[in-house]
Amino acid sequence: QCPGIEPLCLDLADWDATEAAVSAAGPFELLVNNAAVAVLQPFLEVTRAALERSLDVNLRAVLHVSQIVARQMIAQGVPGAIVNVSSQASQRALRDHAVYCSTKSALDMLSKVMAMELGPHKIRVNTVNPTVVMTDMGRINWSDPQKSAAMINRIPLGKFAEVDDVVNSILFLLSDKSAMTTGSSLMVDGGFLVS
């Protein structure tokens, strides 16, 4: 659907493989960091493996890929935009989501620091913070009608997000229509955080 886009298939938790693959790609003007894992465990049962995997994918990979891409943007002297896909869970505690909420909160703050430090290079950095999105991962974690009903009842618009809801928000933040927006979090949550 998108000519000129060449996907790279790699494990973002593998620092060296990511460095090699992303450094060889480019040139870059835009970046969307969307990879994430959600390993749901009660706080008292969080495992080291779940914590490490979540930190590797949800935070370290974003930092690392963004470093590589931003360095290339700066070297080219071109303005750019980075959008990090966060979550409403960065700002609201959810049962069994201790690790996920924490990594997404860290991602929001990382994005703000990136916006501050990359702004002088004309690189904008923002996050989109969706509610549950009906991806494969969303369906797995929210397929229980009793669990999903409790969440949907807290969303004023009364539904979970579709992929296009998030994609359209990302496209806005990548575009010149948001040329004066950086360091912001765009909530795509149907009003969840105001309820």
By CATH, the superfamily comes out as NAD(P)-binding Rossmann-like Domain
Q: What does the main sheet amount to?
A: 4 strands, parallel
Radius of gyration: 17 Å
- Name of the CATH first level: Alpha Beta
Strand proportion, as a percent range, falls in 5-15%
Which strands sit side by side, in order, in the main sheet?
1-2-3-4
GO molecular function, one term: carbonyl reductase (NADPH) activity
Family: Belongs to the short-chain dehydrogenases/reductases (SDR) family.
Subunit structure: Homotetramer.
GO biological process, one term: glucose metabolic process
Provide the descriptors you would attach to this structure in a database record.
alpha/beta, 195 residues, 11% strand, 4-stranded parallel sheet, 4 strands
Structure characterization notes:
With 195 residues, the protein is an alpha/beta fold. It has a single domain, classed as NAD(P)-binding Rossmann-like Domain (Rossmann fold, 3-Layer(aba) Sandwich). The chain has helices at 15-24, 48-76, 98-118, 136-141, 145-152, 163-174, and strands at 30-33, 80-85, 123-130, 185-188. It has a 4-stranded parallel β-sheet with strand order 1-2-3-4, sandwiched between helices. The longest helix has 29 residues, at 48-76.
